[in-house]
Amino acid sequence: MAPHPLVDKGTPSFTLLDANGESFKFPPEEGGKRIEKPIAVFFYPQSGTFGCTREACQFRDALAENEIFKRSDVQVIGISADPVEKQKSFVEKNRLSFPVLSDQDHIAHNTFQVGRGMLGLTDARTTFVIDSGGIIRGVLSATMNYSAHAKFVTKELEKIQESEGKTGAQQGEGAGQEQQARPPTPDNPDPSPEGDEMGRAVSTVCG
């Protein structure tokens, strides 16, 4: 199967109503700026059905118990085409700890290019994992396998953490290389960082 066309691209933006009927802007913002942490957006067919309830509860439990979820501080967002009233009941009944959005007009579905599942009978169950830089890193479309999505997010978050860890290490190495010895000069016969410090000290004392 070909990868989703949005993989490795910047995340789309949209505004929907949440379960309380309030506008929710995506990507989420804090203080007028996009939050710089991973986001997991899961589109699901219908609130209140068995598979969708189990999926949402698995994400709820992962946020509370999964070390990868907690360490990455991932923002989870659920989206379906159900009306606000149904989303509110769904959230309250299952004690969901993350935003659940109403997309009756399929604004977000179309923006994220979410297709149809079960031979076109329902919206596809599709999950997107977005890194802290706003890039879509992974997509899973598995309408029948509701239990695969939280596990998929865990694996993608591990990849993101590993990638960001390597980037940080490379930046640290680059900074260390800047401190390596420079070629000696008549004014500085000891080009090491320690020699630089001694030279500055002597210069200060001798005026």
UniProtKB/TrEMBL annotation:
PROSITE patterns: THIOREDOXIN_2. Residues 166-181 have a biased composition (Low complexity). Pfam families: AhpC-TSA (PF00578). The keyword Cytoplasm does not apply. One of its GO terms (cellular component) is cytoplasm. Keywords: Antioxidant, Disulfide bond, Oxidoreductase, Peroxidase, Redox-active center. Residues 159-207 are annotated as: Disordered. Belongs to the peroxiredoxin family. BCP/PrxQ subfamily. This is thioredoxin-dependent peroxiredoxin. The lineage of its organism: Eukaryota, Fungi, Dikarya, Basidiomycota, Agaricomycotina.
